[in-house]
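All the exercises in this workshop are built on plain-text protein records. A record pairs a protein's sequence with a compact description of its fold. Read left to right, the backbone structure tokens trace the chain's path through space. Once this layout is familiar, the rest of the handout is easier to follow. Here is such a record, shown just as it appears in the course material:
>
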Amino acid sequence: YGLNIGGHIEVGWSYNFDNPSTHLNAGRVFDLEEQDPTLHQIDVFVERNIAASGEKFDVGGKMEWLWGGDARLIHANGLFDHYGFTDGPEEQFDLVQLYGTFNVPVGNGLLLTAGKFVTLLGYETINPTTNPLYSHTYLFGFGIPFTHTGVLARYQFSEDFWATAGIVRGWDQALEDANDAVSFIGQAGYSKDNIDFYLNVITGPEQPDNGSNYRTVFNPILVYRDSDRLTFAVDGIYGWELEAAADGGDAQWWGAAGYVSYKIDPMFTAQGRAEYFSDQDGARGLGTQLTEVTVGLNIRPLPDHQWGQGLLIRPEIRFDYAEDPGFDGEDTQWTFGIDAIYAF
């Protein structure tokens, strides 16, 4: 039947050199709790992948469950959200994705998706196996949504170019909706040889009980593979929202992150990231301008072993700077982090 079953396990630990009184790494997404070993994710999925085709109708889909500390931070409205980060157990369940896919044989093939799925936006993902580093950007954690519930339609215009458009319930909405309004999401993509380019957009009202104050985010992503070893990437966002600023006015936020990855050999890959994020209006909960630089190493101890090749260890050093003191009263933060992932 073409079913794939797999998943991953991720555990991590971090140390904050500034010894914050809260024992939290301010501004982080999943690596929040310093000096506290965290079972981030036990993730299991069942999927049937299908490709766009003009020849025949086909059906696929995916169901993905997650248990661990990260689930506390990604619950969608109305689905496993009776607990959160501050008022529930350290490890929680979340249904990250549950959707069906349908290939309609028109033209080159129209691929329809219906259900709950991760967002199209962003270079980084909830799934750690597709991220270059342990910690996440401010762009990922504060600038874009995590998941959506709705429908998507993707059409492959040529071998190199495609476009996706959809209607969703908004940012991180599932069985309930904060305002009973819909948002519109889209992506234009181009991939040829050593270049990938994506332009993502989402727009719609997101404030509780308000169907008129639109939130809009544009998100261009560029990936350039200089060789089999060296890869560069740039992830940018620009967003705005009516009456969302801390003072009640209109708000905007923007930022960019640059990545470089160099594969030294099958065992070691060096990673680097530099980021700037501005949320001076306070709409995304930060209320300042932030910069971070992270360097790390991806280590695969057993790259050629049948069972060991799924093991990945990622130590990193990260420096954060905030224009206004936001790190336990300081304007800088130094951290060391390390996680281990086993993908199966």
